[in-house]
Amino acid sequence: MASLRVLSRSQFRASAPCFSRGSLRFYASAKPQTLKERLAELIPKEIENVKAIKAEHGKKAFGQVTVDQVYGGMRGLPALLWDGSVLDAEEGIRFRGKTIPECQALLPKAPGGSEPLPEGLFWLLLTGEVPTEAQAKSLSEDWAARATLPEFVEEIIDRCPPTLHPMSQFSMAVTALNHDSAFAKAYQEGISKKEYWGPTFEDSMDLIAKLPNIAGRIYRNVFGSGKLPAIDKTKDYSYNLANLLGFGDKEAFVELLRLYITIHSDHEGGNVSAHTGKLVGSALSDPFLAFGASLNGLAGPLHGLANQEVLLWLMKMKSQVGENPSDEKVKEYIWSTLNSGQVVPGYGHAVLRKTDPRYTAQREFAQKHLPDDPMFKLVGKIYNIAPDVLLEAGKAKNPWPNVDAHSGVLLTYYGLTQMQFYTVLFGVSRAFGVAAQLIWDRALGAPLERPKSYSSEAIKKMFANK
Ligand code: CMX
């Protein structure tokens, strides 16, 4: 279907008129405007916008930095620019101002599907605009066309011992893609700073496009589930990822992946994976190097690896208290976790102070597709019990579940039972948010990140007699 758009003078000459509305004239064009073309229009305006913000507010303070914040993991320190999403402690995430239910309603869907296509979410993260179905489809096609891995990257994955954690394999393969980085090459050839965003965009598109083949190859190598099929160029990104993992014939699983990638894509800029990508990118390391670093942060148990930890914890709980335990047994098990000095995985958050809407979206998916699944019921039971236990324990500032408390149970239901792989799927999704910000950082000429650090001795001296 032809899309409608406002054309530049040169584009106008090549097009046939369609209709006018007010002072705007619209023309039908055979091809939808590409994401790169739209970005090229938006970037000069955003550069002016940022200039104006800095001119008017540049010298104003956000507030004070306390010594507790310096020792306390910089919680709440307002120090980063991140345009794709903003996280509110009570409400949860908004992608370019849109909540998860709004994204579910507004973003393009696959034919017959009801979950948003991550293609549309990427467009939204980059432009702040909801794309047309044709534009989302053009991204599916573009990513399918870029999906092939260099042979040596396939060999790196194939040579990994199956005992090497899938996240380590994932980060190695992503880092190795820097071999063909358009940005690194252009930089060596002396590209002007104003042009940085173009090759960063190309690398980011290549990065996202190649992740399904990397993830699929790791999954099949480690868990021995046979030969990798080819990418289907007529299908969307999530279908191809599901198919490479061996689940292409399960439509509900493909739908789950569409939702999964959308909700895991971005969670503003301060979380470990997002911030690491931005930090490393600020040294003008290309998107493959920057996102490889993100993945190493995501692989930590307090961040993305928590989805693996949750399933391990649930399995242990099930083996101790049975599949349909009493509330009392569940409570005892949670207390035993806390009393042995461990965290309850999937609960708590550095910013959120309410149930994570990413948890709620997955719960609603489960209610629709697997309401009678015993593991889903166990997760629901824990939801009714764990917050009170955590409140009673009195340490966690947020006793509510986060995204990782639910994802593993959904994947397990469809047969993806290998929990060591779960963080790889989080990683595929997180590329969308990190890549979008890397492109904007290069477009806006973001400088090298270099905050100031102090020793404890220096801090003591600074406040002596104060
Ligand atoms: N179980 C037990 N104790 C917890 C807890 C939990 N789920 N959440 C927080 N606490 C403890 C902290 O370990 C900390 O203890 P200490 O004072 O002994 O160090 C105390 O409560 C205060 O922590 P907080 O300010 O509430 O939380 P933080 O901002 O420091 O940490 C997070 C946030 C997510 C690391 C923490 O809640 C946690 O460890 N949760 C379990 C792991 C998890 O689910 N991580 C995934 C988060 C989402 C993601 O990034 O994917």
UniProtKB/TrEMBL annotation:
List UniProt keywords, sorted A-Z: Transferase
Gene Ontology CC annotations of this record: mitochondrial matrix
One biological-process term from Gene Ontology?
tricarboxylic acid cycle
Instruction: Show the active-site residues.
Output: H303, H349, D404
Keyword Transferase found: yes
> Recorded GO terms, molecular function?
acyltransferase activity, acyl groups converted into alkyl on transfer
- Asked if the keyword Transferase belongs to this entry, the reply reads yes
InterPro entries per the record? Answer: Citrate_synth-like_lrg_a-sub, Citrate_synth-like_sm_a-sub, Citrate_synthase, Citrate_synthase_AS, Citrate_synthase_euk, Citrate_synthase_sf
User: Which PROSITE patterns does this UniProt record tie to the protein?
Assistant: CITRATE_SYNTHASE
- Pfam families attached here? Citrate_synt (PF00285)
The entry's family comment says: Belongs to the citrate synthase family.
**PANTHER family per record:** CITRATE SYNTHASE, CITRATE SYNTHASE, MITOCHONDRIAL
Protein name from the UniProt record = Citrate synthase
- From which organism does this entry originate? Serendipita vermifera MAFF 305830
What is this organism's lineage?
Answer: Eukaryota, Fungi, Dikarya, Basidiomycota, Agaricomycotina
